[in-house]
Design goal:
The complex is a heterodimer. Chain A is an alpha+beta fold. Chain A is built from 19 helices and 31 strands. In chain A, helix 14 runs parallel beside helix 15. Chain A starts with 22 loop residues before the first helix and ends with a helix. The relative contact order of chain A is 0.13. Chain B is α+β, with helices and mostly antiparallel strands. Chain B has six helices and five strands. In chain B, strand 3 and strand 4 form a beta hairpin. The longest helix of chain B is centred in the C-terminal third of the chain and has 22 residues. The N and C termini of chain B lie far apart (58 Å). The chains are: A alpha+beta, B alpha+beta. Chains A and B meet through helix 1 and helix 17 of A and helix 3, helix 4, helix 5 and helix 6 of B.
């Protein structure tokens, strides 16, 4: 399983702060996002979405809509079915462990189950006319009772989320090891707490969208703003009953994903079906209003937990119950509650653990991972509980952590838990205590009590908080990577990984360039286009540098070795005397060389003539580097906040974040990922609250009501690195896309508590609003 | 359908067009003129991705109708971009990693261009104040601020060089 990290010559390209190859076009306004794709004769789609959280569709009258000039088609479920193999979407991650009939419909036929569920589609000459027509569709609904709070789902008397469901609880499972009962019976201390994290959206600034076009032979090209182009291809083949080689999926420039595009949606199938039925290309671009009510959300979980500790603050066990809000349908699976329940012990040694998990359906937007995928919830729970131990036992928060962290000497550290691939959770490398110290030194934790006392004398309430986060990254089972040198000398990398803004192309170009003796700018990277590679999984779970990076690395080495082998023949030199640099194979220490383009030209072949002896055609190689295990990245964050006790406003004064993602391919890009990740976490901690009333009506469906952090609300972050190479892949890398988000909410909550110790405030739910914080302060004042 | 004939100068080029009155400026620029560098992120005036300059002032193109641009000069991200290269501000964004997915970037570039034209030495706080009219989900704003400060320095140095 373990591959030693290459101890090669000093790296030239990997590890540098190379400017991104993606940027010049994007900066000049020459990016091509899905709404920028130009297709002759394209029609525009708009969807009719349910205004009810739960209702039976009694009748739909589309006659007025159809009569509108400029309307080409109106589809209800019945109308669109002829273009489909079935109306119901397949489960994203197929499993027998879940009941049937849980996925959404391409268009809802009978019973709408959340506000935003699409039940009809209009295709017109313009988007404006399409939306006009949507407003003319008359639907007679019969209201059904609504279940909006997932905690209600456990009550057998509660109304059914979907009439077809045998139980509002989709599934329940227990994650457990150790003698939990015994540990809790004997523990010196047991503390219990109810903790919760709320729903939020992913909110890439570019929403979803798709353009579908059939050519005259019946082959389909679809451009979609997706994180998983190959999955879309396979699902389209299934749903449209088309041969896979008749489908090309292209993800153009993707304006952010964050999980929102990590699932195949009904709209993507509907757009292709509409193109088939109308014989015209069809485009649908999600607007923000739709993103709020029809793109996936995550993070609503309620944890009732107890933690057992000895007199010295050492954790003995953790047990309890968690209810996860799954939403109305299950498009993909139960990875969020599964991740959360198997990640909650985080960086700590927890000898006994038992958690009963209830995946509860509600009449709300379905959930799948948003940046972090269950790990932020897990970190919130364990870090809040560790703070609780510190508070109750009067031991410093940092000290309690040191007493419980897995020490560096015990790495790799296997936990008695399994990830969904069925293999154990093994913390593969890292030095958690050292990282904690590095950050606490940087933020001057030692001097903080004096600063805090001085501030309090001025009537200012400042607090310092910190938290760990551990994130499983590099999720397999594989990713594709092909490296090809063309006879022109141009080097191309093809991968099934998917770029949605992270700088994937630059990172893969750096990895390839390192082996081929060129610069990252000499390499073209093509991702997210199913016509270039047969297999791919795409962008999610902080996986692409690990998986695609490893495949590209191995492919580049194979290409290098091949170039050297043929170069040896062409230069009449020994292979060991050759090296690649400046786009050529050189005899070391001389100017004798043959260009890679020349090598590629020879390997392209000449009709009827022999290839050089012992050589296969083409200067290219492909790998599908596989993995079942996860590379665990570590984050430790600390921040200083000031709480205005009159307004409840929380201002972040300083934020220091350390990331250990193993070896860094491009530190500049990694810093950028962490900045964005922390900012997402700040949103989850202080601002982002997707509100639904008791009737399942969303009441935060604009950016004026649902607040994303803006530039004035986030501080200047101070980023530190620790590099513990992962022994699990040839590059020694770990993922970084989500790590920045994971520990943010508990870090900020810990700081808020610390600022408000005079009132005994303890924040147990994220996000914390100023209004709620004032309530807690007031309650504390009454107690005092 | 209510129609108007408008004349609008976009990135220095005069356009005489017939527009539906309900078409907003962003859709007009993107779909009628093919200037797809201007992006639409929320269509309710919060995210700032669609920001363009109208007669020198930053405007959210999703909140302005195309018909309202009659007789006006509009500059989009394409108009900020020199032939075959990048402007100093764009160059600083590249150097400082001021963008990730690049979707919000055109609007941000437009607003910061306006800032730097009126304030050659902005503070970081002033830059953040301007950026507060833009939502970016990728960068956490830090490197956008760094890029703006870097560009301001470059522009001041260029000006000083020319003055000599």
């Amino acid at each position: 399983m373990s591959l030693a990290v290459e101890k090669a010559a000093p790296l030239r390209v990997v590890g540098t702060r190379a400017r991104r190859v993606e940027d010049p076009a994007l900066l000049a306004g020459r990016g091509r996002f899905v709404d920028d794709v130009r297709v002759e004769g394209v029609l525009h789609a708009a969807f009719l979405r349910s205004p009810h959280a739960h209702a039976r569709i009694v009748s739909i009258d589309t006659s007025a809509a159809r009569a509108l000039p400029g309307i080409r088609a109106v589809f209800t479920a019945r109308d669109i079915l002829p273009a489909l193999s079935r109306l119901r979407m397949p489960l994203g991650f197929p499993t027998k462990a879940l009941p049937g009939n849980i996925t959404p419909f391409v268009l809802c036929p009978e019973e709408v189950c959340y506000v935003g569920e699409a039940l009809a589609m209009v295709v017109a000459d313009s988007r404006h006319v399409a939306e006009d027509a949507v407003a003319l569709i008359a639907v007679d609904y019969e209201d059904l009772p609504v279940l909006a709070d997932c905690r209600e789902a456990l009550n057998p008397a509660a109304p059914k989320v979907r009439l077809e469901a045998s139980d509002n609880v989709l599934t329940r499972f227990t994650i457990a090891y150790g003698d939990t009962a015994g540990v809790f019976a004997r523990a010196a201390h047991v503390f219990s707490e109810s903790l919760s994290t709320h729903r939020g959206g992913a909110h890439p600034i570019e929403g979803r969208g798709a353009v579908a076009q059939f050519d005259q032979t019946g082959a389909l090209t679809i451009w979609s703003s997706t994180q998983m182009s190959h999955d879309l291809k396979f699902m389209l083949a299934d749903m449209l009953d088309l041969a896979e080689d008749r489908i090309r999926v292209v993800a153009p420039d993707v304006g952010g994903g964050f999980g929102a595009k990590f699932v195949i949606y009904p709209e993507e199938i509907a757009v292709a079906a509409a193109a088939r039925l109308t014989g015209r290309p069809v485009k649908w671009i999600e607007d923000r209003g739709e993103h709020f009510i029809a793109s996936i959300q995550e993070r609503e979980q309620y944890w009732d937990v107890e933690i057992a500790a000895d007199a010295g603050g050492k954790i003995l066990g953790l047990r309890g119950r968690m209810i996860h809000d799954q939403g109305a349908y299950t498009p993909q699976g139960i990875n969020c509650p599964y991740n959360a329940s198997t990640a909650v012990t985080g960086p700590y040694k927890v000898p006994a653990y038992s958690l009963d998990v209830f995946v509860a359906q509600t009449n709300k937007v379905p959930t799948i991972p948003v940046r972090g995928a269950g790990y932020p919830e897990a970190a919130f729970v364990i870090e809040r509980m560790v703070d609780r131990i510190a508070l109750e036992l009067g031991i410093d928060r940092a000290e309690v952590r040191l007493r419980n962290l897995v020490p560096a000497a015990e790495m790799p550290y296997e936990k008695p838990l399994k990830i969904r691939a069925g293999v154990p959770v093994i913390l593969d490398s890292g030095d958690y205590p050292a990282c904690q110290k590095k950050v606490l030194d940087a933020i001057d934790y030692a001097g903080f009590r004096a600063r805090q006392a001085a501030a309090r004398r001025e009537g200012r309430h400042i607090g310092l908080g910190f938290a760990h986060g551990v994130k499983g990254t590099g999720r397999g089972p594989f990713e594709s990577g092909t490296v090809r040198v063309s006879p022109s000398g141009r080097i191309s990398v093809y991968t099934g990984a998917l770029a949605m803004g992270q700088g994937l192309h630059t990172a893969l170009a750096q990895i390839c360039a390192e082996q081929l003796g060129v610069g990252e700018g000499d390499i073209d990277v093509i991702s997210g286009d199913t016509s270039y590679v047969s297999l791919g999984l795409g962008g999610f779970a902080s996986r692409q540098t690990v998986t695609a990076g490893s495949s590209v690395h191995l492919a580049a080495i194979a290409v290098r070795d091949k170039a050297i082998k043929l170069g040896a023949q062409m230069l009449e030199a020994a292979e060991v005397d050759l090296e690649l640099r400046d786009g050529s194979v050189f005899v070391k220490g001389t100017d004798r060389a043959v260009a890679l383009s020349e090598v590629a030209r020879v390997l392209r072949g000449v009709p009827g003539y022999a290839l050089p002896p012992g050589m296969e055609a083409g200067l290219e190689a492909s790998f599908h580097w596989r993995t079942e295990v996860l590379a665990y990245a570590h984050s430790f964050h600390a921040c200083e906040v000031e709480v205005d006790v009159e307004t409840g406003n929380v201002r972040i004064l300083r934020y220091v974040a350390l990331q250990d993602s193993g070896r860094l391919i491009n530190p500049m890009i990694v810093e950028g990922q962490i900045h964005g990740g922390i900012t997402h976490g700040i949103g989850n901690a202080l601002f982002e609250f997707m509100g639904y009333d008791s009737e399942g009506q969303p009441y935060t469906a604009t950016f004026a009501d649902y607040l994303l952090p803006a530039a004035v609300e986030v501080p200047k972050f101070e980023i530190l690195f620790h590099e513990s190479p992962s022994p699990l892949n040839p590059l020694g890398v770990k993922g970084v896309g989500e790590g920045g988000t994971v520990p943010v909410a508990p870090t900020i909550m810990s700081a808020i508590d610390d600022a408000l110790t005079p009132w005994g405030v303890r924040v147990t739910a994220a996000p914390i609003s100023p209004v709620r914080l004032l309530e807690l302060i007031e309650a504390g004042a009454h107690k005092a | 359908m209510d129609i108007r004939d408008i004349k609008v100068r976009v990135n220095g080029v005069e356009h005489a067009c017939r527009v539906e009155t309900r078409v907003n400026l962003a859709d007009f620029l993107r779909h009628e003129l093919g200037l797809t560098g201007t992006h639409v992120g929320c269509e309710h005036g919060v995210c700032g991705a669609c920001t363009v300059l109208v007669d020198g002032h930053s405007v959210r193109a999703c909140l302005m109708l195309a018909a309202q641009a009659d007789g006006k000069k509009v500059v989009t991200v394409e108009g900020l971009t020199p032939e075959g290269g990048l402007s100093p501000l764009q160059q600083s964004f590249w150097d400082k990693h001021g963008l990730q997915c690049g979707y919000c970037t055109p609007g941000v570039l437009v607003s910061l261009t306006e800032l730097l034209e009126t304030n050659a030495s902005p503070t970081e706080a002033e830059v953040r104040e301007v950026l507060s009219g833009h939502l970016c989900r990728c960068t956490g704003y830090q490197n956008i601020v760094a890029a703006a400060m870097d560009a301001a320095g470059q522009l001041r140095a260029d000006k000083a060089g020319k003055a000599k």
